[in-house]
Design a protein that fits this description.
Elements lengths: L6 H14 L3 E3 L12 H11 L1 H10 L4 H16 L1 H7 L1 E3 L1 E3 L12 H8 L3 E8 L8 E8 L2 E9 L6 H11 L5 H5 L2 E6 L3 E4 L10 E2 L17 H6 L2 H11 L1 E3 L2 E3 L3 H12 L7 E5 L5 H13 L12 E6 L6 H10 L6 E3 L4 H10 L3 E5 L18 E6 L8 H10 L6 H4 L5 H14 L4 E7 L4 H7 L1 E2 L6 E2 L2 E3 L1 H6 L10 E3 L2 E7 L6 E2 L1 H13 L2 H17 L10 E6 L2 H18 L4 E5 L4 E3 L2 E3 L1 H4 L6 H4 L5 E6 L12 E7 L4 H8 L13 E4 L4 H8 L6 E3 L6 H12 L5 H13 L3 H16 L4 H21 L8 H16 L15 E8 L15 E3 L16 E2 H11 L10 H11 L2 H9 L2 H22 L1 H8 L2 H19 L4
Helix pairs in contact: 4-5, 11-12, 12-13, 21-22, 25-26, 27-30, 28-29, 28-31, 30-31, 33-35, 33-37, 35-36, 35-37
Length: 958
């Protein structure tokens, strides 16, 4: 006997499993096409579970009560929808329930008994059309006679899941009442599952419902068996109906697999005092996942039927809380008063916490203002859901949140370290920050940093690395079509420029800082801005403007606010000159003065609305930003990004991901990068393409190393720290605190070497940053570390903020001689490696200000900088060099300068002479000219060799 590889065999295996777990097997003859119900099971459920209500209904409908009841039920489903009827029941003379959810606790055994009365049934080959030989559905799932799901099956020995999808799209009439009534439709093969909640013919959008990019292999079963062994099981279906499925804009919302899996995993055994990290990419539907989790946590009970968490607080680190998140959490809750949006002030938050509101949606910064208002709140367990958890969770606002909500108590062994009541108060504050036995953090982010992983991640007991508790990767989101791959079309337009010295002297500067300043000088040069603006406008008008059926927009990411202003002015000038039918917007904070005019976001844009709102309008096509809208900005019509800013790591991922949102007719994106190379972008994205991990935890000994170095500076000592902190704890007048810091400030000012000043300030900042993070993770409390942190926090504010500029005057000594943008790159994909990305933890070592090397001559700096932007070259046609040299030697005025000036002085003017000679050559041989001019390394070497030749011929006079 051969194996059964038919679709029918697949179908029978599913039915066999379902009936073994309590499902009732029914036939198509049991289904009433007119009412779209299994009438017998509907009535059986009502008679068995609600005899009193039925008796009352039957009394007033003595003739044909059952038919009247079915008519009333059909009317309610048509009016309110299946999910509302299952959840709320309906009223007709009496109140009728059509489904009993599984109770969250065992406090009321009667509720469990009622849940067991539900009738789960399955029908195969259901004939749903009201005609002979109509279409059939492979499987339909019913609860108490009401259909909730259809399933079309395919066996990949013969057909794929897409064949099932096409059946729904092209052979199933979406107007059929059965399809309107069902909550979800599954297209299922033995390898893949897709789902849709609303059929719309060829436009129907089926979403993947798989356990990953591919479903894992299941021993002795189908890879998609989880649909009937997990999802369709009674307990899970009950949770879906009662806690997950809801309607939004007349569409049923059914969780995607990773959303359901994530919430179920987190609700399995949550424990106060434990933290959880969820790495979910953009496109994961994170807002809905957070909303479902919030409600699940509120209704989670322990074995003693006590709520595990008394209150759920949903937090964003943005000052303006995402309205979508607030509204989503509120939309899922059907009872009034359960959810409170904190959209006014911190007083509203304090009142919500004191009153014990079940779910609060707020921003992080409000906690800094309510500590004294919630001191007397009774001990509670809090579940804190953090939207976009990054390093802000180690800042002062997060610290205040922990201190305000924790019920941690300081043990006697720790208190023994205290010398007085002030030390005890400080230790108590430290313990509250370090120990949070009544708090659980559920942190969501697409791009976890090392600190985020260490604070919220899951530590591997064997290897010691940290990983997220749940993953929905960028790779999966791209593969499933929920976001676009912004690296698919990546163009780099490198910039080549040449700077020349404009003074006779050759002053010395710190090389690294000088290079940064010089590069900035180039980027702000009017010629560079004009050239790049022209390139971007040409590209936009020739390409981007035709994307997304003419609705595509672009963003220019600049490196500074001044740069954003200059580009805005130049864009508007060129748009007006070329009479182009587009407008631009600029987004930046504060005021920028340019040519005696003070520009703000409000006066540089010709709109009275906010930039975010204005950019939604079709007339505004290009948004120019400086440190704004690079994270948390969602504009699906954003297609092209022009990058004129150095990007690294998480910042690169977050910035470029602004373009990855999907939209109708948006098939791709494009990045045009003037600054970064593809290797850097690849290196930035790879840790976040799959699962992100942290190789090891931070070694707390780094804090002691930094402390030792700080005290070595002899700006202050431990006694001064002790005296200051004691005074601060006692609440002395602030003038006393200033007096205590006067002498250390004077000592700092007396430091002669500016390098030492910079190094000391860098030590202080590093200690502050590291301790604010580590204080929440240390396995102990050390008063000396805390006191130093408090002292530094105040001292740093009084130390001079600006040390003398070590590159002062640099820009007076240089000018830009030539500038070129290479636009030959036709673009292509940046291919990321599969697998997980490992981050390196916080390293030890003492910060430094400069490399251990002497300052460098300006000429050498320019040479190195020009070489860094050189093109490839071939060394040919050297016979023209003699022609150039002879012509230079015939210039009597120049030769006079050579004889009376040192070489470095003459070099300042020789560049222009050399350029003039090249132009002369161009007129007779453009091939040789291009070979020299397009290769700065060769060009620079040739120029220097020619100048050496001139001095050798004339004799150097010094």
């Amino acid at each position: 006997m051969t194996s059964d590889t038919s679709e029918k065999g697949f179908q029978n295996d599913i039915i066999t499993y379902l009936t073994s777990t309590g499902y009732v097997k029914r036939t198509t003859n049991d289904y009433d096409v007119t009412s779209c119900l299994d009438i017998e099971l509907v009535l059986n459920f009502i008679h068995a579970t609600q005899p009193k209500a039925w008796k009352k209904f039957a009394k007033h409908n003595k003739s044909n009560a059952e038919a009247r009841f079915i008519m009333s039920l059909v009317r309610q489903i048509k009016k309110k929808g299946t999910i509302a009827v299952l959840r709320e029941g309906f009223r007709d003379i009496a109140k009728f329930d059509l489904f009993y959810p599984r109770p969250n606790s065992t406090l009321n055994p009667e509720l469990k008994a009622k849940f067991n009365e539900n009738i789960f049934s399955v029908v195969d080959e259901l004939e749903y059309q009201n005609k002979d030989k109509g279409n059939r559905l492979d499987l339909v799932i019913f609860i108490n006679g009401i259909p909730i799901s259809t399933i079309e099956l395919k066996n990949t020995f013969t057909q794929s899941v897409d064949n099932a999808v096409n059946q729904y799209k092209f052979t199933r009439d979406p107007r059929e009442p059965l399809f309107k009534n069902c909550l979800v439709h599954f297209a299922m093969s033995n390898e893949e599952i897709k789902m849709a909640t609303k059929l719309n013919g060829a436009k129907t959008r089926f979403l993947p419902f798989n356990k990953g990019i591919e479903n894992p292999e299941v021993k002795d079963d189908y890879n998609t068996s989880y649909l009937y062994t997990e999802i369709l099981q009674k307990n899970q279906l009950s949770r879906l109906i009662n806690n997950f499925i809801f309607e939004e804009d007349e569409t049923v919302i059914f969780p995607r697999f990773h959303q359901l899996d994530c919430v179920n995993m987190l609700l399995d055994k949550p424990e106060p005092g434990h933290n959880y990290l969820i790495q979910h990419s953009a496109g994961s539907g994170k807002t809905k996942t957070i909303a479902w989790l919030a409600h699940g946590l509120l209704n989670k009970f322990d074995d003693n039927n006590k709520r595990i968490y008394d209150m759920v607080i949903v937090i964003s680190d943005r000052k303006v809380i995402d309205a979508q998140l607030q509204d989503q959490v509120k939309a899922i809750e059907r009872k009034q008063g359960v959810v409170e949006k904190i959209d006014k002030d911190s007083k509203q938050l304090a009142e919500a916490i004191k009153s014990g509101t079940n779910i609060v949606v707020t921003t992080l910064h409000k906690f800094s203002y309510i500590l004294d208002k919630i001191e007397d709140v009774e001990d509670r367990n809090y579940a804190i859901i953090v939207d976009e958890a990054h390093s802000s969770q180690s800042g002062s606002h997060a610290k205040h949140l922990r201190e305000g909500l924790t019920n941690a108590e300081t043990d006697q062994d720790t208190l023994d370290e205290a010398e007085d009541e002030y030390d005890e108060a400080l230790l108590d504050e430290m313990e509250k920050r370090r120990k949070t036995p009544n708090l659980s953090f559920f942190a969501f982010t697409a791009t976890p940093k090392a600190r985020t992983l260490e604070m919220f991640g899951k530590k591997d007991a064997e290897f010691g690395d940290y990983r997220p508790h749940h993953l929905y990767s960028m790779k999966q989101a791209i593969k499933e079509g929920f976001i676009l791959d912004v690296l698919e079309n990546y163009l780099t337009y490198p910039t080549y420029f040449k700077l020349v010295k404009t003074v006779e002297d050759d002053p010395e500067f710190d090389e690294d800082k000088a290079k940064r300043v010089l590069r900035r000088f180039v980027e702000l040069h009017p010629h560079a801005i004009k050239e790049k603006t022209e390139i971007m406008l040409d590209h936009f008008m020739n390409s981007t403007i035709h994307k997304i059926k003419g609705k595509a927009k672009a963003m220019l990411v600049t490196g500074s606010r001044k740069e954003a202003v200059l580009y805005k002015l130049e864009f508007d000038r060129q748009i007006k000159a070329r009479n182009l039918p587009i407008k631009t917007l600029a987004a930046f904070t504060g005021t920028i003065k340019q040519d005696t005019i003070e520009y703000t976001e409000a006066n540089i844009n010709d709109t009275k609305k906010s930039v975010k709102e204005s950019f939604k309008s079709d007339e505004y096509k290009i948004l120019i930003v400086a440190n704004k809208f690079q994270t948390g900005f969602d504009q699906p019509l954003l297609h092209t990004m022009y990058i004129n800013k150095m990007l690294r790591g998480v910042a690169a991922v977050q910035t470029l991901s602004r373009a990855n949102r999907i939209a109708p007719h948006k098939d791709d994106t494009l990045i045009l990068d003037f600054v970064n190379d593809t290797d850097t972008i690849k290196e930035s994205f790879e840790p976040y393409y799959g699962e992100t991990s942290l190789e090891k935890e931070t070694d707390y000994h780094i804090l002691y190393d930094l402390m030792e170095e700080i005290y070595k500076g002899m700006i202050f000592d431990e006694e001064e720290v002790e005296e200051f902190v004691k005074a601060y704890q006692k609440g002395v007048h602030q003038s006393k605190l200033h007096n205590l810091l006067e002498e250390p400030v004077k000592r700092f000012k007396r430091i002669i070497d500016d390098k030492d000043k910079l190094l000391f300030k860098k030590l202080l900042r590093r200690y502050q940053s590291l301790y604010s993070f580590m204080a929440q993770l240390l396995p102990f409390s050390d008063l000396s570390l805390e006191k130093l942190y408090i002292y530094i926090k105040f001292l740093n504010r009084l130390l001079p903020g600006q040390v003398p500029d070590i590159i002062q005057g640099l820009l007076d000594d240089v000018d830009m001689d030539s500038y070129k943008i290479d636009t030959r790159d036709e673009g292509g994909p940046i291919i990321l490696n599969d697998g997980e990305g490992e981050l390196t933890g916080i390293s030890g070592g003492i910060p430094s200000v400069f490399n251990d090397k002497e300052k460098t001559r300006l000429s050498q700096i320019l040479e190195a900088l020009n070489e860094a932007f050189a093109t490839d070259f071939t060394d040919e046609d050297s016979l023209f060099v003699t022609q150039i040299a002879n012509h230079i030697m015939s210039d009597e005025g120049f030769i006079t300068k050579v004889k009376s000036n040192p070489r470095e002085n003459v070099a300042a003017i020789f560049g222009n002479i050399f350029e003039d000679e090249l132009v002369t050559i161009y007129e007779s041989n453009d091939t040789f000219y291009n070979k020299i001019n397009n290769n700065p390394e060769l060009k620079e070497r040739l120029k220097n060799d020619l100048l050496d030749f001139v001095y050798e011929e004339t004799g150097e006079q010094t």
